[in-house]
Amino acid sequence: MFPRLGNLGTGPFGEDADTFGDTLAEVIQDEPQTRGLPFKIETIQELRTLLAGSDEEIDRVTRALIRIDPTADVEEPPNWGRFPSLRAFWSAVLHVFENDPEVQAGREIDPNA
To answer: Superkingdom of the source (predicted)?
Structure first.
């Protein structure tokens, strides 16, 4: 039901999420830059669907999709960061994808232009 979010779970939100950034916020912020516009739009749709659910549904789906716990206070890496809830985590991810320049422009942007 959430193939794009599943892709995030096998990559930046996987077991070794720290390989994608120094902090959890950095991982979230950088992720849209590595994806094409269709992926970004589909991810936004999936996130809106997920966030329309109850906290219990979000918990259940999150545990099936990603291998990290964004609410955990981890020791390594230091200053990794955490979110107060899974809803807050996914809301932050949605915010970053929605505010991506390509999404805002409604078209892919050539980084060399």
So the answer is: Bacteria
